[in-house]
């Protein structure tokens, strides 16, 4: 494999995961690594049995191109990617591509597609499979969501023969491999798409270890792909999955989730609240998997198209009104980190020196800034300017209800009247992208500092994750430079400079970096991480 020296690449969608669940957009790169506190597995792995997993969000569709990101916990298991990220070296290595090379100008990526891979419907995987998949994403008729954002840097796709795939980029972009290591760019069976048409999202066909069987109210059922013999090299199990079935349920209510784990209804609980994790640690009945979320911390986003937030004094005041340490304690029970910059400490580009540019909790100074901006306290104790009361509506989903209530109280401390609009998850995400909010709460799980480009570059307004309408020429130049800088340390410095500018302008309130907790029943062995989601290729059921 040939590639530029000292090139750094990193993703989440982890999606999208926008979401994997929240701005979430999270794009989950194909890279697995053992969990340090994983239980010892003295017994020989067994075949058979069912692994049942629970997520908080139900997918809108299982068509990865049209999904808002809630499909990731399911479709990740059904597909594969051109490359994967080595969990130790962080290098990108061939997977469904047997080799790849990057041109000297960084704009042409040539992949050699491996032989012997077939889709679940028996169709062979070729370079044309990827070409057709990527062109479907880019076709406006598809109305691709997160997948469309991921493919924006790609100018053209060609497949001169069955083994060769060529991607031409509009400009050099060192983060493109992060997205090509994501399940959101997995190849899809065009035969199945033609067969099912608009119903493909209920009848997905991939080429991964698990095949779609059904989608019923009680959950999505995947079955073992008996023909699967092309796992990633880092997997211990180089054949089909050991379990017979993988069932994915939706359990939104955390008060229902944990009893389901404890009574054996489910085996794996994803995104367990920090307040509940203590009871499962050091308990032989369970394995606790945890990691600090990479990407942009949980933050308060101000809609910059609103007149109030076009005043930097107001933005700085809002930053100073947030008691971040109190939120880490109240929401995360101390299981997280206060965020003073726009990248979490587990992401390239984080630098502790940025803390001096962040805003400390200071109610009195916030009052002075609001006074200076013309927002005076009226007879009812509310901030008012030119006869208009300072009111804010928080757009959230149920996942952020407690955080919103705390912030509502913090805003009220200085006379800002805040209300909460709590919507169902898909309506919340729709509201984010349409800019239908005054302020909102979100995080962006992504294992690369390019999360900043996707969230704050002006080109991403209406087409990407720039939901706040931020237009800043200096910031645009820095974020573009970050995409085109290959040398790791130089690239890191670019993102340090970008974060400093974001902090100085007080565009966003970074609040905390949280941990992702997954609790696994001891009857299921060998669960490992991808970037932000569990992987079951090496798993087995101790029946």
Could you give a quick summary of the protein structure above?
InterPro entries: Peptide/Ni-bd, SBP_5, SBP_5_dom. The chain contains 14 helices and 25 strands. It is an alpha+beta fold and 543 residues long.
Keywords:
D-Maltodextrin-Binding Protein, domain 2; twelve-stranded mixed sheet; globular; 24% helix; SBP_5; SBP_5_dom; alpha+beta; 2 domains; 543 residues; disordered N terminus; Dipeptide-binding Protein, domain 3
Task: Write a structural description.
- The protein is α+β, with helices and mostly antiparallel strands.
- It folds into 2 domains: 50-267 and 523-541, 3-Layer(aba) Sandwich (D-Maltodextrin-Binding Protein, domain 2), CATH 3.40.190.10; 296-513, Roll (Dipeptide-binding Protein, domain 3), CATH 3.10.105.10.
- The protein has helices at residues 72-75, 127-138, 146-150, 176-180, 190-196, 254-262, 312-321, 324-332, 363-372, 401-412, 425-434, 451-456, 473-484, 488-504; strands spanning 50-55, 83-85, 92-94, 97-102, 108-113, 154-161, 164-169, 210-216, 219-224, 245-250, 268-270, 286-292, 295-302, 336-338, 376-377, 383-385, 388-389, 391-397, 417-423, 439-445, 508-521, 524-525, 528-529, 534-535, 540-541.
- The strands form 6 sheets. Strands 1, 8, 9, 10, 11, 12, 13, 14, 18, 19, 20 and 21 form a 12-stranded mixed sheet that branches. The chain has a 4-stranded antiparallel sheet with strand order 4-5-7-6, covered by helices on one side.
- Helix 7 packs antiparallel against helix 9 and helix 13 packs antiparallel against helix 14.
- It is globular.
- The relative contact order is 0.18.
């Amino acid at each position: 494999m040939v590639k530029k020296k000292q090139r750094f690449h990193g993703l989440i969608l982890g999606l999208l995961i926008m979401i994997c669940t929240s701005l979430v957009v999270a794009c989950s790169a194909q890279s697995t690594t053992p969990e340090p506190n994983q239980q010892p597995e003295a017994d020989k792995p067994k075949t058979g049995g069912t692994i049942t997993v629970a997520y908080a969000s139900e997918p809108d569709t299982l068509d990865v191109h049209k999904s808002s990101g809630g499909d990731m916990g399911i479709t990740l298991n059904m597909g594969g990617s051109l490359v994967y990220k080595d969990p130790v070296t962080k290098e990108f290595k061939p997977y469904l591509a047997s080799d790849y090379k990057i041109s000297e100008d960084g704009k042409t990526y040539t992949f050699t597609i491996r032989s012997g891979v077939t889709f679940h419907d028996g169709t062979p995987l070729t370079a044309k499979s990827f070409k057709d998949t990527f062109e479907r994403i880019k076709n406006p008729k598809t109305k691709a969501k997160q997948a469309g954002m991921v493919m924006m840097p790609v100018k053209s796709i060609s497949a001169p023969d069955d083994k060769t795939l060529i991607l031409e980029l509009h400009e050099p972009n060192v983060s493109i491999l992060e997205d090509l290591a994501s399940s959101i760019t997995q190849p899809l069976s065009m035969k199945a798409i033609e067969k099912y048409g608009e119903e493909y999202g209920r009848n997905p066909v991939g080429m991964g270890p698990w095949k779609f069987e059904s989608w019923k109210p009680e959950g999505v059922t995947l079955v073992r792909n008996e023909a699967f013999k092309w796992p990633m090299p880092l997997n211990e199990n180089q054949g089909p999955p050991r379990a017979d079935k993988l069932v994915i349920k939706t359990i939104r209510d955390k008060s229902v989730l944990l009893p389901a784990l404890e009574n054996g209804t489910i085996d794996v609980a994803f995104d367990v609240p920090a307040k509940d994790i203590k009871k499962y640690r050091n308990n032989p009945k369970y394995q606790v998997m945890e990691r600090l979320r990479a990407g942009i911390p949980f933050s308060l986003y101000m809609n910059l198209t609103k007149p109030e937030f076009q005043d930097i004094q107001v933005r700085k005041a809002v930053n100073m009104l947030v008691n971040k340490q109190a939120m880490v304690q109240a929401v995360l029970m101390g299981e997280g980190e206060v965020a003073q910059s726009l990248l979490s400490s587990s992401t390239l580009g984080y630098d502790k020196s940025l803390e001096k540019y962040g805003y400390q909790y200071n109610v009195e100074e916030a009052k002075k800034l609001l006074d200076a901006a013309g927002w005076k306290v009226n007879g009812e104790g509310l901030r008012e300017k030119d006869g208009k009361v300072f009111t804010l509506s928080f757009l959230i989903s149920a996942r952020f209800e407690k955080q919103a209530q705390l912030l509502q109280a913090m805003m009220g401390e200085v006379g800002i009247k805040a209300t909460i609009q709590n919507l169902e998850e898909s309506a919340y995400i729709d509201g984010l992208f349409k800019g239908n909010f005054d302020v909102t709460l979100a995080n962006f799980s992504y294992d690369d500092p390019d999360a900043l480009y996707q969230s704050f570059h002006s080109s991403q307004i209406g087409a990407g994750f720039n939901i706040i309408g931020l237009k800043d020429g200096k910031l645009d130049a820095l974020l573009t430079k970050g995409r085109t800088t290959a040398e790791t340390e130089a690239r890191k410095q670019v993102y340090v400079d970008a974060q400093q500018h974001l902090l100085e302008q007080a565009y966003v309130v970074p609040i905390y970096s949280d941990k992702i907790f997954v609790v696994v029943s001891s009857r299921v062995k060998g669960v490992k991480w991808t970037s932000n989601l569990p992987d079951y290729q090496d798993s087995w059921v101790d029946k």
